[in-house]
Fold:
Amino acid sequence: MRIVDVRTAVVAYHGQATLVRIDTDEGLTGFGEANPDAGAAGVVGLINSMKELLVGEDPRDVERCWEKLRRRVFAGPQAGVYVIALSGIELALWDLAGKAAGQPVHRLLGGKFRDRIRLYADCGDGDDPAGSVAGCVDRAQRMVEEGFTAIKFDIDDLNHPAKFDAFNHTVNASELRSMVERVGAVRDAIGPDVDLAIDLHARYDVPSACRIAWELEPFNLMWLEEPVPAENVDALVRVRAQTRTPICAGENLYLRWGFRELLEKGAVDVIEPDVPKCGGLAEAKKIANLAEMHYVPFAPHLVSTPLGTMATVHQCAAIPNFYVQEWHALDEREVWDSYVVAPDTSGSIVKDGYITLPETPGIGVELDMDGVRKHAVPGFGIFE
Ligand code: MG
Structure:
């Protein structure tokens, strides 16, 4: 079996999600997805430039194809949009390898530890566009009623009226009070037994991150995410050493080498690689194994369509130290559901806060081309 073509489509989801299609000379087709954070133009351009290195390769040699691209396309920076493009291709290769073998991808990754994947609902700023505490409480209660056993909220408010400075990374007393009020109200609403994570989006300096972490200690957080920017691991070590609140980071790191220092220095209690961003399924498994060596749980960040989401489910099934997987579609639920053919009449692959592991060959979702066409981003073409 040989690769004959690599094509892309770009759809609106969390910005611009790049879908990857790889065709073979035997008529089999695989689909993958690259994380949307970088914007589609760079990702599509890079994937197009990688195509000639893939044509003629056997797609079942997933890691060989991946390594070939990594070594021959990237002479230098192995992060950012380069790795995001590589990730999208890698997911499509696994889909093809699974379809060729007649096996679900998790079987090719070593088999499954579990039959369904626990999700946490990313609740953002809640149901109220103004981000009120009442809107957060409403969304939290709604998610728990829907069956979610874990949720996450954002508390970093760039537009907080009490902010003194648009560029410094320092939290002031009024901002801190708003943060505590939001987290406290949500914790009261969901009770003590639902897991609650809080995201700071890498916006604070060390003393501010510590003050926030201390103030949130009474709320028994599942984790506090990215309290400081991602570039300086030692700063994160200092934050973690000063609080009982568990610290999580990793969505802005790439490849296994990007996670090495984080784990070796004991900077985190939980890691959150983004599978369609950090290098793909096999790379995320290697990162998870590295985390396992340090007894650190794996809770992937994820902002992808159901295709990238389901690919991640296979990887989460195939590692022992899986914790919980992000689900970020609350504000775009209808659009999110429209991208794939639902497994039953429910209309969604997400049920009761879980995704059931597919047992069909490949990644196990079928793109709904009506949904893809309806939400395609103009100017990119649809697998042309
Ligand atoms: Mg985050």
In short: The pocket of magnesium ion is lined by residues 199, 201, 225-226, 251, 301 (CB under 6 Å). The mean pLDDT is 96. The longest helix spans residues 80-101. DSSP finds 14 helices and twelve strands in the chain.
